[in-house]
Amino acid sequence: GGGGTNIVDGGGDMYDNGNIIQVYSGSWSAPLPYTRQCGGGMTGAGVGDVRYFTCKAAAGVWVAGFHSPSASIGGFEVTGNLGADGHGTASGRTHVGGGVGLRAWGHSKAVSGSSKPSVNHLVVVRSAGWTNSWSSHTDSDAHTVRAGSGSPVAELLYVLWAGAGGRFYTAQDFEAVLAIAVSASFTTTTTTTTTTTTPTTTTTTATTAPAVLLSTCRTRSDPRLERRFQFLFRARPAPHGTRCLFGVTPKDEGSHCVMDDGRYGSFGWCYTQADRSEWGSCSESCPLEGSAEVLARRVELLTERVQAALKRLNMTKCLPIGAK
Predict the structure, then answer these.
(1) What Cα–Cα distance (Å) separates residue 233 from each residue in 226, 262, 275, 279?
(2) Closest CA to 30 of 17, 16, 44, 41
(3) What's the farthest any 2 CA atoms get from each other in the chain?
(4) What is the pLDDT of residues 17-46, one digit of tens each?
């Protein structure tokens, strides 16, 4: 998982040259090289405006993330061969997770039950109607997720992990990882939770982070969009040049303008008052969710939270996925 376009073995004969990934945007990309961009940044996928990163995390977690400003991602595919060589079983299903405004669908595939490490995929999108197909042969890593009757998306996330001794993970296990992946990759909470444990009690205290003004990010005037936003959300338009206030809505992740597919401005929109009474279309100087700094925080937070989820699910015996 450290370089190249495939995992040769992965440890314990998990693979026989597998985890070859491709993305669809008008056409399929070539097999994508592993970028090892755990610290931020993205690389062009060679199709449409799709950019991506891969990150080999500790504790057997490997992640790939894709972003398309035009929301043109219509599919994702994994191919290659596995070390199970016909032993064990292949299974898959579609899971639904997230919450209000953050609904997401996780399409899973698992090869488990052999003496080799189990191979577990979860492909996450924020659109219903996508199809999930996989090979029933346990020597094949084939797994394809397509838009089908659903809509192409701006973001797609792929999480891979291994299970020692062919371990089988339940639907509930996959859904727990889905919940963590959604919260880490599609929104970032502005609430810090501190837990203090005594011999008899556990106390949880939540502290909400303050909203942040970014002096370089200011609104621009767009009367047509302002009327639309005011009608839909009952918020007044901010004067031209008003500073954006981040951390007001989970969608801005405390650091960038909200794109919403460009419906409220080519560079997204932001609130300018903490009570959500005023908003504005963002100008060219504002950060978007695809910026290197934002992506770096996402990747770091995602890997931390997925690893935490695996630990809570007693997946601490996951094998490290090899570098080749």
Answers:
(1) 10, 16, 13, 10
(2) 44
(3) 66
(4) 999 999 999 999 999 999 988 766 789 999
Q: Which residue has the tokens 């094949």?
A: 140
Q: What is the mean pLDDT of the chain?
A: 79
Distance CA(19)–CA(147), nearest Å, equals 21
Cα-based distances in Å from 232 to 50, 75, 117, 227, 246? 30, 32, 51, 9, 21
Quick check: is 169 in a domain? yes
Domain membership flag for residue 185: yes
Q: Is the pTM of this model over 0.70?
A: no
> Could you tell me if 221 and 127 lie in one domain?
no
Within this chain, do residues 296 and 149 fall inside the same structural domain, yes or no? Answer: yes
Residue that has been written with the tokens 């859904």 in this structure? 175
Residue 76 CB contacts under 8 Å (≥ 6 apart), including other chains:
21, 22, 23, 24, 66, 123, 144, 145, 156, 158
- Write down the pLDDT at residue 201: 33
**Full domain range(s) for residue 236:** 208-246+254-282
- Among residues 206, 216, 219, the alpha carbon closest in space to that of 280 is found at 219
